[in-house]
Amino acid sequence: MAEGDGTIHNHGKFHILNGDMSLGTGGDTIKVALCSGSVPSVDGALGIADCTVLTGATANYVVKTLASQTTAQVDASDRAQFDGANITWTALGTPEAPITYCAMYDDTLSGDPLIAWWVLTTQSNGGDYTLAWHTDGIILLT
């Protein structure tokens, strides 16, 4: 349910283009957190510490590691994509604050730089909560 607008953070773009962030199979450890409050600014050298991460352990709010990371070159449509497995939080309870976005960050690099975030409008109802990525992948370069 990554249903809202997605934004790739400028600092994440810099790390990808600079070659010090490795996405895909065997790449860096990429994590996703549910967050509250205002979405971050697209500018600046921001990391996950600049976000309000929801961490209520009793309500199953935990930071998740992105599994099955892949990158692909799609010549037929002149694209490149980054993808990974959908992420599910099981029996997600009531958070300490409303969920407003999910943040993706690189846990391997110093400062845990933000890669991207997606605005979320659906709140937990006590059941499983799944972030289902688009069929074109998490990030699509065209």
Q: Key terms for this structure?
A:
mainly beta; 3-stranded antiparallel beta sheet; single chain; 142 residues; 32% strand; 6-stranded antiparallel beta sheet; globular; 11 strands
Strand content: 25-35%
What's the pLDDT, averaged over the residues?
90
| Largest sheet geometry | 6 strands, antiparallel
* Cα-atom radius of gyration: 15 Å
Number of domains: 1
Query: What is the approximate shape?
Result: globular
End-to-end gap: 23 Å
Provide the succession of SSEs: EHEEEEEEEEEE
Total of helices: 1
The helical percent reads under 10%
Low-confidence stretches: none
Class of secondary structure makeup: mainly beta
State the gist of this model.
The chain is mainly β and 142 residues long. It is built from one helix and eleven strands. The two termini are 23 Å apart.
Topology:
Elements: E1 6-8, H1 10-18, E2 30-36, E3 52-53, E4 64-65, E5 70-74, E6 79-83, E7 87-89, E8 101-106, E9 114-119, E10 129-131, E11 139-141
Antiparallel strand pairs: 1-9, 2-3, 2-4, 2-8, 5-6, 6-11, 7-10, 8-9
How would you sum up this structure, described in words?
- It is a single chain.
- With 142 residues, the chain is mainly beta.
- It has one helix spanning 10-18; strands spanning 6-8, 30-36, 52-53, 64-65, 70-74, 79-83, 87-89, 101-106, 114-119, 129-131, 139-141.
- It has one domain (6-133).
- Helix content is 6%, strand content 32%.
- A hairpin with a 4-residue loop joins strand 5 (70-74) and strand 6 (79-83).
- The longest helix is centred in the N-terminal third of the chain and has 9 residues, at 10-18.
- It is globular.
- The chain starts with 5 loop residues before the first strand and ends with a strand.
- The model has no long low-confidence stretch (mean pLDDT 90).
